[in-house]
Amino acid sequence: MPSLAKCPPAVYIGGMADLFDDTPDTPPRDAATRPLADRLRPRKLSEVIGQTQVLGPDAPLGVMLNAGTLSSLVFWGPPGVGKTTIARLLADQTDLHFVQISAIFTGVPDLRKVFDAAKIRRRNGEGTLLFVDEIHRFNKAQQDSFLPHMEDGTILLVGATTENPSFELNAALLSRAQVLVLTRLDDADLTDLIERAERELERPLPLDAAARDALIGMADGDGRALLNLIEQIASWKVEGPLDPDALTTRLMRRAPQYDKSGDAHYNLISALHKSVRGSDPDAALYWLSRMLDGGEDPRYLARRITRMAIEDIGLADPQAQRQCLDAWETYERLGSPEGDLALGQAVTYLALAPKSNAGYVAYKQARAAARKTGSEPPPKHILNAPTKLMKEEGYGAGYAYDHDAEDGFSGQNYFPDGMARGTYYQPLERGFERDLKKRLDWFAKQRERRAGD
Question: What is the reported pLDDT for 260?
Fold first, then answer.
């Protein structure tokens, strides 16, 4: 890690702003007029709340800084957990010039100016830490433009993203940067933040203990959102501490973090599916509610719930699929919010139904066998023979009509000639599949008996 001269003031770079405005900052406003989040911004890494999995002595950043080396990084985490703050403090601690851009407002010409300025600094013995907010919004070509400047040391890249880097960032960029996961702040972290805010305000918030807990819930793990709520509360003129009802009357809860096309979408549907598979109706209803509250399309949920019935329950409870289709139709007739209850009822039924993936496994094995055997024709005895030529070729010859058999079962072979008989469907001793297993075992014994005749 370079030991460089004290870096000049950090520069924020946006599409509409002067890209290289290094003029002295305007005189600081009175502390009381500055936003609370700005007044509480940590001045060193040890003051950052939470994220010990990244910043601790044995954590990735702690190890890098102790070793005197710092590689390019990608911070992946939800909003309001300190991504920008940590990047700024890293620049301060390593004496690198801090430059911040947003992928939302920055185009290719802007990036060229950023890289050119970083090259000039490098020639003058000064390094550049380039912080890219919302880096996942850059396209492939834009992401590729960082690579040569990362490799030759012109910039040390620190990207920030709320989306899964595995899906949103180029493999080439990821191979040159270490991904560090920042997590939502827990209740203890948010409590610490409230106490810091009260010390800065020099007075306690007018909340009772239950209302303080409710305030933490409103923030939903977002430190920035919590400070904004605190700032609103601090401006109120109230007599006596407020209880949760009074608080929620005055404040709106932070909207849940949910992106119908992003990472949260896939994480929550996975949680719902696995809760159903794990026979936990309470957890399944919770994740269903989380998705509905986040604005998920109930029709998407109806489709996925129906898939769960086929994939994880199957013939162990043939009524499960019908329950899902009925719930889907009910939703189409009632809409939200009344129809949402039908989806909840279907989820509860699936979670409590006996589970079997025997049909799912059998289907996949049969598909694999079909691909392997290619174009093998059916045996001639089960082919129809509507023409004389086909009869002469042996089509239909020797076919045993099962209804004519004494027990309604001929036991003939229906696989291609020369292909070993496949065994794909193996029902489990659960639910209705117990009866199906008995039938399957009986058919197998009849085939053995006829083969021995």
Answer: 56
Neighbours of 177 (CB within 10 A): 20
Nearest by Cα to 355 from 288, 251, 438, 429 = 429
Cβ-Cβ contacts under 8 Å for 368 (sequence gap 6 or more): none
- Which pair of tokens denotes residue 398? 């020797």
User: Which strands sit side by side in the sheet containing 128-133, from one edge to the other?
Assistant: 11-13, 97-102, 128-133, 156-161, 73-76, 178-181
In the block, tokens 């950090």 appear at 10
Kindly give, in sequence order, each residue whose CB lies less than 8 Å from that of residue 152, ignoring residues fewer than 6 positions away: none
Q: CA-based diameter of the chain, in Å?
A: 102
Q: Is the bond into 416 cis (omega within 30 degrees of 0)?
A: no
Q: Which of 282, 50, 266, 255 is nearest to 167 (CA)?
A: 266
What would the pLDDT profile of 378-402 be if each residue is shown by its tens digit? 999 989 989 999 888 899 998 999 9
- Residue 207, both tokens: 């909340």
pTM of the model: 0.64
Residue matched to tokens 């489709």:
303
The b/e string for 50-65 (b: 16+ C-beta within 10 A; e otherwise) is bbeebbeeeebbeebb
Residue 18 forms beta bridges with which residues?
none
At residue 241, φ and ψ (nearest 5 deg) are -70, 145
Which residues touch 19 (CB under 8 Å, ≥6 apart)?
Answer: 11, 13, 110, 113, 114, 117
Give 285 or 31, the one with higher predicted confidence: 285
For residues 90 and 51, give the distance between their C-alpha atoms in angstroms, rounded to a whole number: 14
pLDDT in tens, 245-255: 888 888 866 55
What are the C-alpha distances in Å from 16 to residues 105, 115, 142, 163, 428? Answer: 8, 18, 19, 25, 65
Are the C-beta atoms of 299 and 305 separated by less than 8 Å? no
Nearest CA among 105, 103, 101 for reference residue 114:
101
> What distance in Å separates the CA atoms of residue 42 and residue 263, rounded to the nearest whole number?
29
The Cα–Cα gap between 91 and 41 comes to: 15
